[in-house]
Amino acid sequence: MPNYSRNNLTGQAYDIILKKIIDAEYEPGQKISEKKIEEDLQIGRTPVREALLQLRQEQLINVIPQSGTYIAKIDLKDVLDARFVRASVERRIMREAATLKLNEEQIAYLDRIIENEKRTRESDDFPAFLDSDDVFHEYFYKLTDHQRVWDWLKKINIQFNRFRFLRLKVQKLSWQGLIEEHIAIYKAIKTNDVNEADRLTANHMHRMLDEEESLIKSFPDYFDNID
């Protein structure tokens, strides 16, 4: 994912289009119009074209000759690979975090994250819920001085995040379960229970794909590599 400045129009176009892809506002397999995107974003032709080119290079957009430009479907193989990498890394991160003694400021910040997750669930704001979910996980990478690892994971987690968003959008009942798991992981880390933090994190990461089969049945046209 390119590291564009917020003042860079190409970067702004890229960020907005990418978020629309992850949030399924642009649905997998949907045909898109460069001109319509320019109008929606109120950004000029060149920045939008450059952003779409970057997204095409990242295999999030497909161009079919004599047909048009389409949002790429969610590649299930990429989702599974990303989950495997993240689960492996995150268990190490949480084990390391559980060896730390959290100070009052860190505890207060984590409490605020949990409260924000509860608020976004109550308001059915799933984009905000996913953002808050990311903030929770990212904070432990910061605490253990592994921010660059998180930044790297974000680059390979785009397909995984598309799956996560769709899952939460369809199956809202799982939101509360995710919050409860966050609270349990947080408690294990706060009490320096390394093994429990590891166990809970492993279960939490596997839960993210628990509804894989039912989600594919609900949206069979959204996925590639489902065999």
UniProtKB/TrEMBL annotation:
Superkingdom as given in the UniProt entry: Bacteria
GO molecular function, one term: DNA binding
Keywords assigned: DNA-binding, Transcription, Transcription regulation
The keyword Transcription is annotated on this UniProt entry: yes
HTH gntR-type domain ranges (all copies): 7-74
InterPro entries per UniProt: GntR_C, TF_FadR/GntR_C, Tscrpt_reg_HTH_GntR, WH-like_DNA-bd_sf, WH_DNA-bd_sf
Keyword set includes DNA-binding: yes
Listed name of the protein: GntR family transcriptional regulator
Species: Limosilactobacillus albertensis
